[in-house]
């Protein structure tokens, strides 16, 4: 607007980088705030995603270890049953291993589903941040042109 032209009237345009920093603190404050909020939310969700990946990987390691324990236990049970000529019987230890394994698998699946949701949120927030950044730059360019480049047309 007219106030913008008075801002640069008779003065050489400031360094564009410095003008951008000034713009973010004044006319572009709202757009800059939206960008900062979007970036903070994006960082928070990425951190949640990283933490969840660690939990899921921990579940996977536990599942693998439990499977190994269970396989070893089953071999012992089969071997003992063959020696005695008896039927296979699941003892308390094997039952506890199976129950724990099922619980860890359920936790793994739950974590994996949560991770899929987080990934889509992170993707959305990334796009939102890019849009906010583009809007801030677009607004700045328009402001800068109006303030420093749009002069009266030469006669």
TrEMBL record:
> What InterPro entries does the entry give?
KIF6/9_C
List where Basic and acidic residues composition bias occurs. 14-27
Q: Which UniProt keywords apply?
A: Coiled coil
Q: In the UniProt record, does the keyword RNA-binding occur?
A: no
Sequence segments annotated as region (Disordered): 1-31
Q: Does the keyword Coiled coil apply?
A: yes
Looking at the record's lineage, which domain of life comes first? Eukaryota
Q: Which residues form a coiled coil?
A: 32-83
Q: Where is the Kinesin-like protein KIF6/9 C-terminal domain?
A: 15-148
Q: Which protein, by its recorded name, is this?
A: Kinesin-like protein KIF6/9 C-terminal domain-containing protein
Which species does this protein come from? Cryptomonas curvata
């Amino acid at each position: 607007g007219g106030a913008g032209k008075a801002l640069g009237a008779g003065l050489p345009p400031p360094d564009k980088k410095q003008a951008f920093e000034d713009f973010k603190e004044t006319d572009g404050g709202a757009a800059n705030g939206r960008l900062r909020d979007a970036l903070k939310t994006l960082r928070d969700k990425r951190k949640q995603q990283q933490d969840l990946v660690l939990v899921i990987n921990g579940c996977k390691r536990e599942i693998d270890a439990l499977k190994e324990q269970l396989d070893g236990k089953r071999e012992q049970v089969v071997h003992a049953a063959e020696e005695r000529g008896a039927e296979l019987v699941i003892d308390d230890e094997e039952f506890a291993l199976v129950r724990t394994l099922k619980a860890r698998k359920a936790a793994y699946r739950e974590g994996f589903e949560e991770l899929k949701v987080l990934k889509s949120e992170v993707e959305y927030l990334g796009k939102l941040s890019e849009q906010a950044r583009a809007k801030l730059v677009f607004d700045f360019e328009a402001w800068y042109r109006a303030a420093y480049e749009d002069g009266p047309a030469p006669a």
